[in-house]
Specification:
Rossmann fold, binds magnesium ion, seven-stranded antiparallel β-sheet, six-stranded antiparallel β-sheet, homotetramer, alpha+beta, binds adenosine-5'-diphosphate, PurF (chains A, B, C, D), binds iron/sulfur cluster, 27% strand, glycosyltransferase (chains A, B, C, D), 18 helices, magnesium (chains A, B, C, D), 4Fe-4S (chains A, B, C, D)
Chain lengths: 474, 474, 474, 474
């Protein structure tokens, strides 16, 4: 008998970041901000705070509300702070990987936290190693720290753009020094980063839902390529990075972000609602009710129902106490993994032809279990509708994707997938439909995991490495 | 700075029970059953298992998934088990109150767990004390154990109906002895109790959602006044209690039970959906969208939207990581308590006239915060609709109600409440509407907390006691 | 690979008790008192405090310093308190057995904690069960609570002597009611109980070392057969129990008590020192050095060395970090269990003829390992001297003894034991020598576990029961 | 009311190290080795293990037996491992400082743990920072890692001597790479490092008591200036470091090491015993009994008693359950801090003239409390004897010393100290006496903290820095 780890058959955002400058309760508000961003990373969390002279760090494995208590927050004194929630990508699951990283170098103490990914970091890492660098983690973020430390710039603030100028990849990064909070976003703007105001203090977060919890006001996004320095002289913005065509991660709108967030200046809920509407147009279904796979499928399902005129019903209930590990019974229970999280409302499904709305299909195993569960609950037909196109490629920009060979759409046609998940019909939203629903022109959007066309160079090595890194740990 | 305890501005079910007989993984399946019933009690949980000779017990404060690990489950060997999740009513929050209770007496070892309340227990307790009984808890369940122990019946199985025959009140109870699992339900059937089958094993639970998780089949309800004895000779049913008019707790359908459960033989989701429809008829609103207070308002909101033709929108997001305690910031954040749980989707609410659907209003303070939050998010009008009548009296049948003076509807008219919660309009579902939506005739329903007409005698003392018990602990 | 539980090859005191009346920090001082009494019981601990109106309880498995934190102590408000540390005897290891017990009955709330044992409790328990009593634990202490509750005496204070008047056995008991602290000791005075003063407050403890830690003054012992009632009118003493010949447990002086305690009015250290001197006279050894098995053997070893003129050396080091469980290596390490606790000082032992002083031999397995370890460290001869006679019988008065068949001295002659433990010679202190060293006349001492002559009736049943209870749990 | 942290009025060894190569249970034996070395560091502990390909790390704050469980040890697969226990020096108490450090560089993965101190590390650190290095801890050990990483040597094994050749200071270091275990000791040999054998495996530890627990045989010391490389080809020794006059830390024999260890090839117990004898000659006392401050004073007190002919008595009892933190009562208890650890045996001290033997006096506050406690217990005279000379200077070689101004002997004469601690007389062992007792010639011994003459250069800056670092953290 062993513990049951909830199946992850989803792409996973790797991180969420939060920063604040100029508030006497900096660490405590960072704690709240991270709590609101918890869905972006559940493996580890950490906060570094500055009292103007010294940076102090607290990191641990686990959820924000479990890790931080009064004692720990009290150790983080000072009026500025940054924090991070994180998933592991692959390999090591360890406190050594938990951010923010805090180091000392010739420019003094620097803490950093990062949402994104630097596809060329491995190469640069080897180059730095050849020059004598030591690495305490496997993270590409550490590469940036080394380059900062090696910079002959007058200060960290000058060094940051110097170092990141030629760095390919996705980075929404926060730096904290004893005297300043610095935010920088890569020129393509893959991952979100929003700026807000709380009284006289400035706040920065991956998603605006973190502002809502602390009553801060969303001001605007940190722009792609922008660097913002906040210190006692106020906020100073610059655009030190080379201009590039924008590449906003559309998957944020499809799945990662909370529906109550504004991402890339656009309401996530609105995007999802419109995806649902488009899906109804592109893939209508001769059915009785529209049922979301909660919670991510809710907004699109409402849109689908609104557009199609079919009745919207909450036919699957999401358990409120879904946790991380679970003791499984020895005897086999059908679809046990899915059942711990979702349960069908039988009277709603019985005898009905159901349109089931979910955001995406990764491996297909979960979808198959859900379809079966819905059918066993009495549905006569199950029509699956997905609010984005088939996911065929890995992401190199800060999202944990399974091996290409595990992406069902990379191996199978839509009909084969339909057959595999045992649905009566299956419809994916088109690329155009998705983009239009989100309100982004293809020029400013990253859609690489659906098209295989990546906005940055991807070295052969990066790809190989990717495959290797995602092999099961022996 | 202190820890923030999520505000409870809700009536609270006091308990959930689960039992199983004849399965090698009895304790483990009880653990799963309790996990599915967690919403019925989050303060403590416990399991007692029998190996045919000896009963063993594990109880602790906390959530099922936190309390039980492999080691603890392994100590609970045997093929039968009962389990319990519990809220505290008042006074002591202590392991001493956690059920199942396990005692030894002349009839051998007996374990018991109870969902319900015995309004005359205090009187009987004093009588028993006069006869020399000692009480290890403040629970009325312990009174039943004492009476069993004093019975001269040949065995526990004979003693149970003897003892409960004249007991007024609500009891859906499970007993475990080394050789048998016994379930009994009071003659009015206030609280639910369902019987299911898992292969050759029998299972019993407060709600059928517990069966779903373990792939058991719902067979039927344990009937009001019925006693079921399960042992190695199979299941034996009898009706040893005096016949009474049924009094099913309608609040189970309004709020307590999970929507995916069948309660009193009727789908909870269906009841709620119809309540929403009736509400739309009784209290239409000139508005743009219908928004539930999630999750309990969802089914009724869908019904309201369906009936009214207004658009259903998911305008409030429920945080996935809502826990028990939370470190609050020192500075005041408006509606902090509500925000930790709910966040508005601004783009949906902005500029819209909103119908907000919730199940009930207890103190009114939470409703006021939600209305404010929705308005601050940009709603131009907020019309609150409640899927039951005004709650005006305490429950004496196993539900934790605040003092009568704290029930806003016991002190104020609907118009005054509307003013207090700052809504533009407020409509409560009528008693008839509610009953009709649930499909129960008034003869078989308890609606005492809405009407003040209690199905059992309520001694003056019980009422006074009630008030006293619910005074703030000094 | 499994966890290693430190071998218990010792008799074990089953409990320690502490009480205080009239101090604003009652619970906190009880915590300190229990900390000083920790050696008397390491499995569970608990405190009940009274604020004059209400008794509150905190109990848990584990060590005093691990179980109690600020939060827990703060819940125990009030100026009087009692506390308990406990070992399990046999069977169940469970929070259900942890004392103090707190119950309510016709006399109001009563808490009790007990050091001792009531050999006839099982009989009385069955009688009570026949009259309808329920038992929440397997403890004989609960029998006393039932009898109190059944008493028609005017109050708990009158009921206590009434109930205990005819109770055979060992009991040093503390009772707490909202308004009073009551201490009572059985007429033979098997187990110790001391009275002390801390400013205006009264304190009571199993050993005087508990007074030392809190700066209280030892006043006198609670006498055998004495009952002391402390309330707002002060301390009132009475002798309500029938007079009996005293039977002080001599094993307290041999092993259980801390050497810095005064037990039965006599310094434990002094007794042990004199035991060592007598041992040197009764069993001299032709050797080079005298080495104690620390810490219990230290005082006797110093006495032995002083008397014999041999050099005293600290040839075995006791690890400071001895804990409860330990992860053992898979490969066998010789005498691993003993080594985790003790390590030889090789340069002291090498080439020397060693007299090894320990307090007692129970099963003999530990002694054998120690002798081997000393020999492997280079000792040329090992002469074992034990500061009491061979232990041949179980204790029925509050000490956990292994089954008679596991007591090596019940099965083997001294020469056979010597052979078994591989010593060059073995000498036990004589009964007279031991008593004389302690300064007690045989009339006032219990020496039953060495002689088999028990001061109380021991029913056949009690003996049989004893054997059964100590069979390995299946 | 706050928690009470046991007063530290002692110099503190900063670390203990353990390594093993060639055993299938490498991590588990390292765990046991660290358990035996726990007294050398109680703040944090860690193990890094190698499976021949990959190094894995587990570190945490806390005691070895609390930190490691089956799950954690199982993650550390492989046949070689190194481990570390650690105190903090000053400043940050953080997981960031816990060793072993594990990094990756151009030479692959390297783990290191270090007992000692590098007085010039701060300078080198700044130099490295100027060259672009980043530091994740405040430890001087990290400087060595950077220099290794920068070395153009062919491998780590070549790089180690290259880097350490010119490093002034104290280092008994273990390195682990996927394929080798490397041990190196500075040319003066300040800190101990012993080599042992366990079947075919090699083991290395700070003290030989770690070998005893796992049944390994002490082979010899790693010599000052020696480097030992152990891999699949066996053990290879070399002496790559410049020759220097030896400087064995005599304080290891006075206090730090366990008495059952062999340190610098000499039994610690023997040294202490002889120190006691010398002390009796140098500072006789007209007294009745000799009493150690346990446990560190025991061996010297036995020696003192043996030499002087005075009676040895165990007049102070050390509590078995001394832990790290403790909840203090609000009311003042005299000498509370000392009492939690030590309690007087009154009957031994009463009316006696006592010679009290301790190893050293640091601040003097603890000695004062002990003298008072002994006197309150009834001693008529208290003569303090210390088994080393007055400690007048800080240690720069791996021992945590308070600020010079806090060392009582740096400010006061012996007579003034006697007066401060309220002793009737006070005698310190002479330098010659101490050295002779240990059997070391002054040429091979470090005695700097007693004489102020340091075996290495000590830059002005180092001294200043030292003072600064030990200022109270603001
Ligand atoms: N584990 C669960 N899974 C799904 N729904 C649940 C669960 N527990 C409770 N519910 C439903 O959710 C409602 C309560 O949740 P919610 O409305 O979010 O919180 P609140 O109790 O504060 O109103 C109940 O009506 C119940 O039907
Ligand atoms: N804390 C949260 N509160 C509300 N919604 C959330 C939260 N975290 C994540 N979400 C939303 O829920 C979705 C993920 O939840 P869900 O669909 O229930 O699980 P899964 O990740 O298994 O699909 C995301 O799309 C996100 O928008
Ligand atoms: N685990 C151990 N087992 C036995 N002796 C130890 C252990 N750890 C430390 N010691 C010895 O005990 C001495 C320190 O303990 P002690 O004197 O009781 O405390 P303090 O450090 O406060 O002086 C050290 O000299 C050391 O030799
Ligand atoms: N907290 C304590 N402080 C000092 N001495 C103690 C303490 N607890 C127990 N003792 C003494 O130590 C003895 C038991 O310890 P020891 O001999 O080391 O272990 P064991 O119980 O295995 O024989 C007892 O005789 C008791 O007198
Ligand atoms: S590849 Fe996909 S997941 Fe990654 S950034 Fe682009 S759109 Fe987002
Ligand atoms: S009074 Fe209300 S809550 Fe109580 S049983 Fe009746 S309907 Fe249910
Ligand atoms: S039988 Fe032995 S242990 Fe028990 S009370 Fe008598 S002397 Fe003490
Ligand atoms: S200065 Fe003192 S403590 Fe430091 S190494 Fe030298 S003798 Fe040891
Ligand atoms: Mg989802
Ligand atoms: Mg709700
Ligand atoms: Mg002992
Ligand atoms: Mg000491």
């Amino acid at each position: 008998m062993e513990e049951f780890h909830h199946e992850r058959d989803k792409l996973r955002e790797e991180c969420g970041v939060f920063g604040i400058y100029g508030h006497p309760e900096a660490a405590r508000l960072t704690y709240l901000g991270l709590y609101a961003l918890q869905h972006r990373g559940q493996e580890s969390c950490g906060i570094v705070a500055s009292d103007g002279v010294l940076l102090r760090s607290e990191r641990a494995m686990g959820l924000v509300s479990d890790v931080f208590d009064e004692e720990r927050l009290n150790r983080l004194s000072g009026a500025s702070a940054i924090g991070h929630v994180r998933y592991s990508t692959a390999g090591e699951v360890s406190i050594r990987e938990a951010q923010p990283f805090l180091v000392a170098c010739q420019h003094g103490q620097i803490a950093v936290c990062h949402n994104g990914n630097l596809p060329f970091a491995s190469e640069e890492r080897r180059a730095l190693e050849r020059e004598g660098a030591i690495f305490s983690s496997t993270s590409d973020t550490e590469v940036v720290l080394h380059k900062l430390a090696r910079s002959h710039a007058a200060s960290v603030i000058e060094a940051i753009p110097e170092v990141l100028r030629d760095t390919e990849g996705a980075f929404s990064m926060l730096f904290l020094t004893p005297a300043a909070l610095i935010a920088i976003r890569d020129p393509r703007g893959f991952r979100p980063l929003a700026l807000g105001r709380l009284g006289d203090a400035w706040v920065i977060a991956s998603e605006t839902c973190a502002f809502d919890l602390i009553d801060a006001q969303y001001v605007r996004d940190i722009e792609p390529g922008e660097m913002v320095v906040i210190n006692d002289h106020g906020l100073r913005s610059s655009h030190p990075l080379p201009h590039r065509q924008h590449a906003f991660c559309i998957f944020e709108h499809v799945y990662f972000a909370r529906p109550d967030s504004i991402i890339f200046g656009r309401s996530v809920n609105e995007s999802r609602h419109k995806m649902g509407k488009r899906l109804a147009i592109e893939h209508p279904a001769d059915a009785d009710i529209v049922v979301p796979v909660p919670d991510s499928g809710v907004a699109a399902a409402i849109g689908y129902a609104a557009q199609s005129g079919l009745a919207y019903r909450h036919g699957l209930v999401r358990n409120h106490y879904v946790g991380r590990t679970f003791i499984e019974p020895k005897q086999s229970i059908r679809s046990f993994g899915v059942r711990v999280k979702l349960n069908p409302v039988r009277d709603l499904l019985r005898g009905r032809r159901v349109v089931l709305i979910d955001d995406s299909i990764v491996r297909g195993t979960t979808s198959k279990k859900i379809v079966r569960m819905v059918r066993e609950a009495g549905a006569t037909e199950v029509h699956v509708r997905i609010s984005c196109p088939p996911t065929i490629g890995p992401c190199f920009y800060g999202v944990d994707t399974p091996n290409k060979s595990d992406l069902i759409a990379a191996r199978m046609s839509v009909e084969e997938i339909r057959d595999f998940i045992e649905a009566d019909s299956l419809g994916y939203l088109s690329l155009e439909g998705m983009l239009e629903a989100c309100g982004f022109s293809p020029d400013v959007a990253c859609v690489a995991c659906w098209t295989g066309r990546y906005p940055t160079r991807i070295t052969r090595e990066a790809e190989t490495m990717y495959e290797r890194e995602h092999e099961p740990v022996p």
